[in-house]
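Field: sequence (string)
Field: structure_tokens (string)

Example rows 1 and 2, in order.
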Amino acid sequence: MQTKWRGSLTVEASLIFPIVFFAIVSLLYMSIYLHDSTVLKAITNEAAERFELAYANRVDIQSGHVLTPKERLSKGLYWRWAKQGGYEDDVSAFIKKEAQRRLLLKDDQLHMTTDIKNYILKQHLTIEVRKKFSTPLDPVNQLLGISTGINMVVQSKTSMRDPAEVIRNMDYLDDLSDYLGPVKAAKEKYREKVKDIIGFFENL
């Protein structure tokens, strides 16, 4: 009877151990994936929040430093007009820096898109970050010609409103319109009509 069962433990272990090992590794990588995707979402939300505050000229988007009134005035009233096109670089640099500091799996496989839509009264910002999450099965998938890795995709949206900026821009456009003859003439007629209406109510 002893010779009949000799080696059975080795056979059973050779079948069970790979399954247990694969389950443990899968749980480990699943935990890392959940951690990194959550942290990446938090970083993206923080970047959108900082962008909103930086758009209002309240903080520095890179350091998070709260600007003093003197620092805010030093930029001038129309600093956003000269800043167009630089926001995307600031957002990307902030996300990359924080990802290298806070993610468990650190690499440069971050792909970011920053979409800014300008409206008269506000701006919409959408930040999307994609990160390739590598797994131990990637070499096998490469040999089989299967796409490797899992893509983590996070997105954050925010709206920026600055009534003071709207008033400044409208006032600036109003001043520019004085150099256009037809527009200036129309404005004069409008002012005359407004005066007539005010005079009508004053005489009641």
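Row 2 begins here:
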Amino acid sequence: MDQIDPSRLNRTAASASIAPSARLVGPVWIGSDVRIDEEALIVGPAIVGDKTVIGKKAVIQNAIIGPNVEIKSDDFVAAAIYTRSHSHTLPHTAFSFGFRRPWQGERFRRWPVWSYPRLGKRIFDLAFSLCILLLVSPILLIVAGLVKLTSKGPVFYRARRQGLHGKEFNCLKFRTMMVQADTLQERLRVVNQVDGPQFKIDNDPRITGLGQFLRDTCIDELPQFFNVLAGQMSVVGPRPSPENENESCPAWRDARLSVRPGITGLWQLYRTRQEGQDFQEWVYYDTQYVRNVSFRLDLSICMKTAAKLINTFLDQFG
């Protein structure tokens, strides 16, 4: 497994107020307008969302807090996701997912067998994916031929990603980059434009000419419907991520790995791409989805994604 350098993961917003006697043991993300009072201790991996107050002598360990939350003096929050939407009495608010390696046993959020997250969602995924693949099958064939003709390398890019309960799988996309793009990424990391463990730069030199169009129109992600049919992904869910990204915050990791990763989701729809905010938004929307997963929410996300894609195509060809 690739190791994450903790020093690269620390981030404190300029507007945060941290008492001199407070201690931060990284990796820790501190959002905008956060106040951390005297003798508070935050042990990472941890995220403190915008406009959150950490009281005097409070202890935060391996947790996601906020945004807009007040942790009272002397409170202790560990291995939890703690948001404003819940009561602030700690025993009832901690949305906790303990995590141990597969050979030691796992603990993720679980639902009853006949519930929508366990059964209904899978039926929805199968029906939706079959319909989409039947509709776009001519496009898949045309794009596969173009990828093969316009650049050297395979048609598909197979990325190792973690799925339900951490099980790894090959996430399929049409290849949009030159061969050995992953190796070049390490050389380009010094110009990374997003926070957290993810990587993104404008005008990425690894992207092919056709690849840029496929990315702009999201056509490159159509093969992921085969992952959905195979039970490795869902139509709606957290963005599929590799283990090294998930390891950056265990509480968030265990929440997002409680469901199958999705082709679309809340973060994909609502991320603002603001500098220094992207990872915090990613964590927030993933955990909100796991809290509130339902057929109505999935249908709403699909409809909004369709509207967004239509607007994208109009912008491309208008």
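free_text_note (row 2): The longest helix spans residues 116-150.
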